[in-house]
């Protein structure tokens, strides 16, 4: 760090803090232990880094401040900008488009204008914080224009971008009225990371279609002023979790005791199935619950022998599609519980809450079968958390083939969530799997998840980005 400038700057839609406003209006902050924070912590501390992001509430204006040795730089968003940039363009245009149009994306020019404006604000904040030649790592679909704006403001920087969600096939991406602006926005980076090789390949195809740039494999050549050329690389860096932390936590006597207590609280069923998701239409929650309801109706699973615990944490509650999903899920859960439940015994325990990591670890440890049935998911970290928590080598992971995790997690029971009959068969085979088969599969899964943790992910990305030769800047 020199003169309050930072050699490493993260730019993400959200700051890694939870804040509280006291009665006297004063604000206090605590760090929220998200995956990205954990991943970047060693680098942030080592390089004295800064993190640019939105504090998560409207009109919150605050000078940059330090939490645990990291400089946090809040970006203010007005109520209107939250509606147009965050709820609108990010979560009602890009989110459904990038998840294979599971919901119809809405295209509004006012939303796009707000997205551009807010992306510029993030880029300007980052430019103010970065030391000469610094590394700036921009995250996710909300900020795809930041790399190009930042390069324009600060050509000396090495800029990385990581897309946490899928990048859609050309034929789908082509719907976006501002597709070439988005591609050019991303090409401001030196390195563009994706979850899967197929995402990176989709992006390169879009570059070929919507620009006249030359591509060779994963490298795109971008001409610069003064006859220089820049090489941008688009490659896969599958993200992971802090596997050791989960493993340790789940081995603790407190978590083990809590897992037993959870089983007791739900009536000690022979089999506990578990779903853990943000309440999002990409997660296939309705498909999963429908399959479970049919298994009860067919008598292939019976109450009270089997219970499904479904954690659905609240998310993006001002967006219409999320409100509709909540209604649909709650209606279906109510129907199934009404039809197959008894006094004091409901086949589905539906929890519309978020829980601390310790409780999540206990839930994972308590569950015989974990159901991850997303219709489309960049990675799905819940699947990896379940595996990391199972040092007892018990439990079965049922995993949708449409998650990034399916590329890596060999040993899971793969399902196509659109094929309800197929999914029902897989769920029954998971419930009936013997201990020997469970152990064999879980060992294989755990080797992978414990080896490839989130620190390895960030190191791999940053090693490639740091190897980019320093940019020559004409005086
Ligand atoms: O998976 C993409 C993502 O933006 C995550 O980074 C985030 O944790 C999650 O979706 C929830 O997003 P939001 O910030 O909209 O609540």
CATH architecture field of the largest domain: 3-Layer(aba) Sandwich
Number of helices: 16
Q: Work out the helicity level.
A: 40-55%
User: In whole angstroms, how far apart are the ends?
Assistant: 23 Å
Task: Return the CATH class of the largest domain.
Answer: Alpha Beta
Quickly give the structural class: alpha/beta
Q: What is the CATH superfamily classification of the largest domain?
A: Glycogen Phosphorylase B
Return the domain count.
2
Q: Label the overall shape.
A: globular
- Gyration radius (Cα, Å) is 23 Å
CATH topology of the largest domain: Rossmann fold
Q: Are there runs of 5+ residues with pLDDT below 50, and where?
A: none
Mean pLDDT: 94
How much of the residues is beta strand, in percent? 15-25%
Give a count of the beta strands, DSSP E runs of length 2 or more: 18
Tell me about the largest β-sheet. 10 strands, mixed
Task: Give the topology.
Layout: E1 6-14, E2 17-21, E3 27-31, H1 35-47, E4 50-54, E5 65-67, E6 70-74, H2 79-98, H3 109-129, E7 130-139, H4 146-153, E8 158-162, H5 170-173, H6 179-186, E9 191-194, H7 197-210, E10 214-216, E11 219-223, E12 229-236, H8 243-251, H9 253-265, E13 271-278, H10 285-298, E14 306-313, H11 320-340, E15 348-351, H12 357-366, E16 369-372, H13 381-389, E17 396-400, E18 413-415, H14 420-432, H15 435-451, H16 454-466
Parallel strand pairs: 1-4, 1-7, 4-6, 7-8, 8-9, 9-12, 13-14, 13-16, 14-15, 16-17, 17-18
Antiparallel strand pairs: 2-3, 5-6, 10-11, 11-12
Bound molecules: 6-O-phosphono-beta-D-fructofuranose.
């Amino acid at each position: 760090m020199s003169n309050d400038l930072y050699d490493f700057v993260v730019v993400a839609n959200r700051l890694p803090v939870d804040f509280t406003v006291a009665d006297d209006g004063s604000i206090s902050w605590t760090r929220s232990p998200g995956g990205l924070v954990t991943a970047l912590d060693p680098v942030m501390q080592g390089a004295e880094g800064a993190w640019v992001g939105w504090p998560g509430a409207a009109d919150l204006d605050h000078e940059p401040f330090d939490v645990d040795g990291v400089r946090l730089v809040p970006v203010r968003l007005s109520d209107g900008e939250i509606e147009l940039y965050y709820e609108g363009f990010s979560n009602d245009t890009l989110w459904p488009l990038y998840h294979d149009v599971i919901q119809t994306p809405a295209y509004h020019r006012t939303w796009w204008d707000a997205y551009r404006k807010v992306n510029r604000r993030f880029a300007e904040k980052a430019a103010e914080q970065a030391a000469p030649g610094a590394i700036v790592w921009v995250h996710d679909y909300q900020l795809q224009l930041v790399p190009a704006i930042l390069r324009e403001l600060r050509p000396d920087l090495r800029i990385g971008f990581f897309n946490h969600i899928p990048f859609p096939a050309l034929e789908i991406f082509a719907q976006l009225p501002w597709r070439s602006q988005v591609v050019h926005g991303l090409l401001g980076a030196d390195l563009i990371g994706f979850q899967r090789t197929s995402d990176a390949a989709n992006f390169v195809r879009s570059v070929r279609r919507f620009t006249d740039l030359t591509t060779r494999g994963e490298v795109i050549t971008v001409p610069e002023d003064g006859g220089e050329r820049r090489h941008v690389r688009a490659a896969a860096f599958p993200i992971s979790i802090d596997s050791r932390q989960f493993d340790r936590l789940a081995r603790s006597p407190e978590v083990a005791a809590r897992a037993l207590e959870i089983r007791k609280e739900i009536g000690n069923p022979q089999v506990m199935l578990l779903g853990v998701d943000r309440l999002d239409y990409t997660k296939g929650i309705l498909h999963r619950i429908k399959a479970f309801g049919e298994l009860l109706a067919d008598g292939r699973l019976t109450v009270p022998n089997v219970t499904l615990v479904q954690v659905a944490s609240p998310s993006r509650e001002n967006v219409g599609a999320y409100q509709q999903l909540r209604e649909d899920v709650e209606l279906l859960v109510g129907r199934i519980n009404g039809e197959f439940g008894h006094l004091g015994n409901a086949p589905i325990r539906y929890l519309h809450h978020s829980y601390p990591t310790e409780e999540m670890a206990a839930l994972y440890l308590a569950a015989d079968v974990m159901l991850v049935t997303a219709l489309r998911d960049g990675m799905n970290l819940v699947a990896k958390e379940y595996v990391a928590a199972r040092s007892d080598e018990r439990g079965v992971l049922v995993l949708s083939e449409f998650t990034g995790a399916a590329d890596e997690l060999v040993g899971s029971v793969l399902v196509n969530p659109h094929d309800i009959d197929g999914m029902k068969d897989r769920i029954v085979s998971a419930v009936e799997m013997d201990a020997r088969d469970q152990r064999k599969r879980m060992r294989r899964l755990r080797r992978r998840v414990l080896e490839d943790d989130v620190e390895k992910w960030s190191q791999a990305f940053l090693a490639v980005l740091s190897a980019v030769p320093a940019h020559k800047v004409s005086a």
